[in-house]
Design brief:
The complex is a heterodimer. By secondary structure, chain A is mainly alpha-helical. Chain A contains 3 helices and 3 strands. The N and C termini of chain A lie far apart (113 Å). Chain B has helices spanning 87-90, 179-190, and strands at residues 3-6, 14-17, 23-33, 38-45, 53-59, 63-66, 71-73, 80-81, 102-105, 110-121, 125-133, 146-150, 156-158, 161-164. Helix content of chain B is 8%, strand content 41%. In chain B, the strands form 2 sheets. In chain B, strands 1, 9, 10, 11, 12, 13 and 14 form a 7-stranded mixed beta sheet that branches. By secondary structure, chain B is mainly beta. In chain B, strand 10 (110-121) and strand 11 (125-133) form a beta hairpin. The chains are: A mainly alpha, B mainly beta. Chain A binds chain B through residues 57, 61, 64-75, and chain B through 7-8, 11-12, 27-35, 40, 43, 45, 49-50, 52-53, 88-89, 92-94, 96-99, 116-117, 155, 157-158.
Amino acid sequence: LHAEVQSGGVDFGGVALAVVDEAPLSTVTNPGTRGGEQMTALLVVLVIVAVLVLAAVFLVQRRRRSGGVIAAPPQQSAGDAARDRPTGPQ
Amino acid sequence: MSTIAAATTFIALPVVTLDDGDDVAEVKDVVYDADGARLIGFTLNKRGWFRGPMKQVLPWSEVAAVGRDAVMVRDTNALTERDDAPTEVAEPAPNRNVIGNVVLTDEGVELGTVADLIVELDEEATVVGYQLDTPAVPPGQHHHGVVLIPLPEQISVSGDALVVPKEVEPFIRDDLTGFGGAVESFRSQLKGAPPT
């Protein structure tokens, strides 16, 4: 039995106990967990942002589309128009 | 034959062409002339919820009919560019929405707040009354709940309050039954004729 002793390894008379990787323990014991958590968090954030954007669009759209019963301003009579016309030195 | 309708029921009605049945717009605002007590047109929304207001408007002169479920126009040419439409319809002032405004008599008595405008549809659309939400007062002292008041042929609309003649009070009705008669009697009385 022979193995190459790599960095950090100890040679016990031909039986090599090697530390192959210096990756963190969590990755070694359960590879992929950290990436999965990140993806889930990203998805949650994306869903929240999407819901907020949709709610904003809904509110703006409702405001733009809402109607009313509007009284037109009173018609200006000729007298009123003459009175409102700016006067001053020509 | 004329029919009586509430103006807010026109809001969100589809505008449909008579020539090919196209659903071209929907009603956004109902615009009326208080001096002449008549509807003068509609502003419009595009069809579809995520689409906004239209650049064109619909003056009353271009309306062929107003029914329970749609506003009918002859063709798409009825939709008028704002530049070509009467200013009052093309640029209605949003702060002059009368729904929710207080109605006072000329003697300073509050009759309620405007819930709707009652319109008589014929060749023209004549504004004949307000539907009011009245203040909560004990029955017997005053009309309460939702009531209809007839309007004179000219209406005073300015600021937040609408002013009506004090003579209107005896003509207040609780429903549309007999309301047309109340309008005629009220207007006759304002002109000096004895009420019928």
